[in-house]
Amino acid sequence: MANSNIKELFFRDRMLHLRLPWLRGRSFALSEKSMRRVVLALTALFLVVQAAALLTLLLQNRGQHLSDENQLTFLRAQQVAQNLRIAHLQQPGLLPSQSLLDAVVPEEALELGRSFMLVDSLGHVVASVPRDGSSDGKAIADILGSKFVTDVPVNAPEMAPTTLVNGDEAFMTSLDLGDMNASLLSLQKKADVLSVWRARVTQISMLGAVTLLVLMMLAGAFHWQVAKAADADHLLALATTRMDKALEGGECGLWDWNLYGGEIFWSQSMYDILGLSPKSNYLTFAEVTHRIHPEDAKIDVLTDSLLKGESKVFDQEFRMRHVQGHWVWLRARAALAPGKKPDEPHLVGVVFDITRQKKLDVMNREAEVRLKDAVENISEAFVLWDTDSKLVLCNSKYQQFHSLPAAVCEPGTPYKIVTEAAKEPLVRQFVPGQADDVSGARSMEVQFADGRWLHINERRTKDGGFVSVGTDITALKQQEEHLLLSERNLMITVRDLQKERQLAEEQSQRLAELADKYNSEKTRAEAANRSKSEFLANMSHELRTPLNAIIGFSEIMGQQMFGPLGSTKYGEYASDIRRSGQFLLDVINDILDMSKIEAGKIELEMEAVNPVAVVEDVLRLVGPRAAEGKITLQPKLEKSKPFLGDRRALKQVFINLISNAIKFTPEGGTVEISATRVGDMQRFEIVDNGIGIPQRDLEKLGRPFEQVENQFTKTKGGSGLGLAISKSLVQLHGGTLSISSKVGKGTTVVVDLPTKPA
């Protein structure tokens, strides 16, 4: 141990002499006298530390020794107590005796001064091993002292410390023997326990003294060796400094690898290349391989090849991690050299920093790839020849244009071989272009048999090579022809436009005359429409007065309010007069309402309208008519908030729509009326399963006086104004009315009214 420490100090001293000239570019050295003082101080410090460590170890060992021996004594006591219990079980009447104790205590249990005593239930000693006749029959308190009772509990889990009557320290345990009415005491003095430990202390002290003597001798030898090696170290440091300067200027480093020892000598320049702070000239193999890129070749595999004789020179490129995290490319060239011993070969060589060269290679490869990709993706046929008329580069369009096989498109193929393998397309037309006799450049246009046009540019490069680019100008030629054709067509079109212009001027004069006539006719039509509306309004008012009288008198006659008419036929005639008058009154009312709407004289009285209440009022009015035709009315009304509307106008709308549904539904049919809120709109739907309406007639529904049936096929009465009035009233509310129908299946009318009309 001392020898290894001295060698380590010696090695560090030599490294200090080698490394000090390199620290921060300034030379300084410790004097020999200072070095010796440092060594003496370190030696003294080592001895003090060693003595303190030895003392601490001995004290720790003393406590551990006491614990181990007490545990062993406790186990021996349990073994003897167990033997006594087994003997009593085999002979239940057996009493504690000296012979019994001698029989159950093994000889090894008595080592290091252990003793055992049997004590009866009264506390008197019955037997003891080793036998002590002076204690037989005495009280245990008289033998061990009064502290025995308090210091040593019965059946304790370990030995308890106590003090004997004579003042000796001891360890004791008391175990109850159960049915034997006795207990077993185990006693061992502390001095006997520590006897073995004291012997070990004596041996270690002797060893420490010998170590001190050896260290003193080694320190003297060290001082003598330092004085002898001072000059050699100075020369070695000077040579090493010069070598490092040379390696640093060449961006390379020196290494010397002891293949069997595992140590690798590194020069200062190697640390500088990787940005490391030098700790020592020697590194372990693990420290070096830890910085090598995992994808690069394993150095140990290459060295095995050298050792086996499979290769003679180590020449390898690999990456090592810089202290800043990036990778540094290195090239190592080395060869095997003999070491101090024949079986310890060294791998000695030089390492070059080739990171810059690698970056340039990568940039060149990337530039080459980009150039090839650019040439390949251009729309022209491209080919480049060198000064020796050998192929440098061509793209697939050039290969396809000349139908070249892939084998002759490799770089370096002579021009003659390429032209022999090429299949030139048939030329229909050749248009020579400009040519420069000085530079050798020329341009031309060629049309091939398949109709394609190619513009070929040929240029000489500065190094004497030749480049040719062929551009497909078929689209340009076609566009040129198209432009010529368009120009001819344009001239024809201009002449036609001049003729059309003259015709247009003549037509504009005729249109102006027609516009004047249209305006005058429009004015006359509007006046006639107003006259018609006023006439209808006046006539409707004049007709309603006698009709009301006819209806009233016919009801009086039908009810025979002033006496019987005489014949039953008069009653039938009176009923017919009332129905005809009522029908005529309804027609006149519809005509009057339609006239008001067309004249713009209808004004809505907006109020909060309950949709359910409006529909229920209408159903009460049309209910008798539906019952008369055996039609079932099915209301599906959802309670919703009131909306703004004209109650009278809405009733008129729904009376007209529901009456139409009842009118065109055969007996036994149904009419469904629903009211729902859809967003901001109040929706009403009237669905019947009546005769339906043909698709071609849906467009004219809603026009005044328009009906699906004409006067020759008409089966139902009516003026044809009810649906038009309903649609107009819905539109006045800002809503919509839509009709969908299928012949034979029924009709659906949907009315959407805004809850807050504008």
The shape, in one word, is flat
Strand content: 15-25%
Give the integer mean of the pLDDT values.
Answer: 76
- Indicate the low-confidence ranges by residue numbers: 1-29, 710-715
- Count of DSSP strands: 24
Largest beta sheet: what is the strand line-up?
A: 8-7-6-11-10-9
**Main β-sheet: number of strands, strand sense, barrel status?**
6 strands, antiparallel
Structural class, from helix and strand content?
Answer: alpha+beta
**Count of helical stretches:** 18
Kindly, what is the distance between the CA atoms of the first and last residues, rounded to a whole number of angstroms? 109 Å
Helix content: 40-55%
Q: Radius of gyration over alpha carbons?
A: 64 Å
